[in-house]
């Protein structure tokens, strides 16, 4: 079963890297995540992410002066049908602190996972192997689907 088929009908959290691979047409991972984003657009997958993702994807385009790419990221993260970008609030921060204490996660990773948990994501899509040992949410890494 392919990645998109495994996610069909679910509410998923999408970490930063899949957005970058999709938007910047990564030669290997871009082809893998494209069907996921197509299914989100078609309403076959519901997706969430956080403003941490927005922060992370904008750094490189802003540093390089690529205003067009920065705006495309803002459009997909803040205006896409089937994708909701949540702000990080007090409850997510407290959950993230517990995750950091339990797993020694980096703060951005803990916040991402806490948003996924808080808003009911069934799976967490990333390419970060460090998150695979989490018990709170099922983590799927892209390279496992190549």
Describe the protein's topology.
Elements: H1 3-7, E1 11-14, H2 16-23, H3 29-41, E2 46-50, H4 51-63, H5 67-79, E3 83-86, H6 90-103, H7 107-118, E4 123-126, E5 138-141
Parallel strand pairs: 1-2, 1-4, 2-3, 4-5
Helix pairs in contact: 2-3, 2-4, 4-5, 6-7
Care to give the gist of this entry?
The chain has 146 residues and is α/β, with parallel strands linked by helices. It has helices at residues 3-7, 16-23, 29-41, 51-63, 67-79, 90-103, 107-118, and strands at 11-14, 46-50, 83-86, 123-126, 138-141. The protein has one domain: 5'-nuclease (Rossmann fold), CATH 3.40.50.
Question: What does this molecule look like?
Answer:
This protein is an alpha/beta fold. It has a single domain (3-145), classed as 5'-nuclease (Rossmann fold). The chain has seven helices and five strands; from the N terminus they run H-E-H-H-E-H-H-E-H-H-E-E. The chain has helices at residues 3-7, 16-23, 29-41, 51-63, 67-79, 90-103, 107-118; strands at 11-14, 46-50, 83-86, 123-126, 138-141. The protein has a five-stranded parallel sheet. The longest helix has 14 residues, at 90-103. The chain is globular. The model has no long low-confidence stretch (mean pLDDT 97).
């Amino acid at each position: 079963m392919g990645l998109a088929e495994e996610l069909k009908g679910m509410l998923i959290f999408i970490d930063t890297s899949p957005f970058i691979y999709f938007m910047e047409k990564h030669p290997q991972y871009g082809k893998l995540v494209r069907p996921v984003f197509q299914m989100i657009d078609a309403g076959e997958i519901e997706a969430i992410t956080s403003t941490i993702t927005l922060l992370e994807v904008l750094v490189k385009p802003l540093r390089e002066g690529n205003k067009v790419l920065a705006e495309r990221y803002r459009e997909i993260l803040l205006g896409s049908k089937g994708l909701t970008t949540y702000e990080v609030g007090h409850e997510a921060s407290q959950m993230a602190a517990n995750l950091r204490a339990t797993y020694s996660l980096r703060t951005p990773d803990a916040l991402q996972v806490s948003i996924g948990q808080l808003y009911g994501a069934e799976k967490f899509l990333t390419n970060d192997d460090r998150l695979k040992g989490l018990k709170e949410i099922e983590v799927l890494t892209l390279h496992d689907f190549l």
